[in-house]
Specification:
Largest sheet: 8 strands, mixed
CATH class: Alpha Beta
Mean pLDDT: 91
Number of domains: 1
Number of strands: 8
Strand order of the largest sheet: 1-2-3-4-5-6-8-7
Shape: globular
Amino acid sequence: MSLKSRLRRPARALEGATVVVRLGETLQTERLVLRKPREADAQALFEAYTQDAEVTRYMIWRPHALLAQTQDFIAGCLMDWDSGLRQPYVLAFWDSIESPIGMLEARLRPPLVDIGYVLSRAHWGRGLMPEAIRTLSADALSLAGVFRIQAICDAENRASARTLEKSGFVREGRLERYSVHPNIGHEPRPCLMYALCR
């Protein structure tokens, strides 16, 4: 039995039971490996983007001023991965798997999976994130208990909207006063809802 098969649970559930799903521990694209984070990733992620104000502009968190903040973030990622709450994948190139360039997180809430993503500025504009999102989405939608992958982005974040559209997602609407992006302001901002369904 493959690792992917062992990590998945069938969508059949008894009345009132919770459906549990798990994606593979490692996913592969043409150029990238999506893998479970490691404590050692904190330094590379800090250098790549967690302290970069331009990368974090539309995030719901502020840039990290200290490596310890990124270390705490990775510790939380590992705890949530092991609990099954979410699967935050580290993205790395095939030929440098120990050098993360971004993350793609899957928050597992059958019948849907909510995703969020971030990529180092040095790798913007190369089609890497749509490639990763398409692979994760295909894997998630192959699970019997998952019917929808969704993501939101700030209404002014055109690059993120284009990323989702290139990934095959459809814009479903605009959510007013939906999410606070502290790097822009303190009030909730409008966001766009995108989804890919089967």
